[in-house]
Amino acid sequence: MYNRAVIDLNEALSQKLETLPKVPGVYLMHNAKGRIIYVGKAINLANRVRSYFHASAQEHPKTRRLVGEIRDIEWIITDSEVDALILEANLIKKHRPRYNVRLKDDKHYPYLKVSNEDFPRVLITRRMQRDGGRYFGPYTSTSALRETLDLLRRMFPYRTCDRDITGKDRRACLYHDLKLCTAPCIGAVDKAQYNVVIEQLIRFMGGESEGVMEDMRREIQEAATSLQFERAAQLRDRFQALEHVMEHQRIITTAATNQDVIAIASDNGNACLEVFFVRNGKLLGREHFVMEGGGDDTEEEIVTAFLQQFYTDAAMVPPEILLPSRIAEAAVLEKWLRTRRGDVVYLTVPREGPGLELLNLASINATETLRLLKAQWAMDKHRSEKALSELQEGLALDRTPVRMECYDISTTQGVEVVGSMVVFEHGVAKKSHYRRFKIRTVVGQDDFASMREVLMRRFDRWRRISEGELRGTRGSQAWAKLPDLLIVDGGKGQLGMAVEVLEHFGLQDQVPVVGLAKRYEEIFKPDRRIPIRFEPSAPAILLLRRIRDEAHRFAITYHRQRRRKAGLASQIDEIPGIGPVRRKALLKHLGSLHNIQSATEEQLAEVAGISEVLAGNIHDHFEMLRLVKEQEQQKADSGG
Question: Taking each helix axis from N to C terminus, what angle separates 492-504 and 447-466, rounded to the nearest 10 degrees?
Answer without folding.
Answer: 30
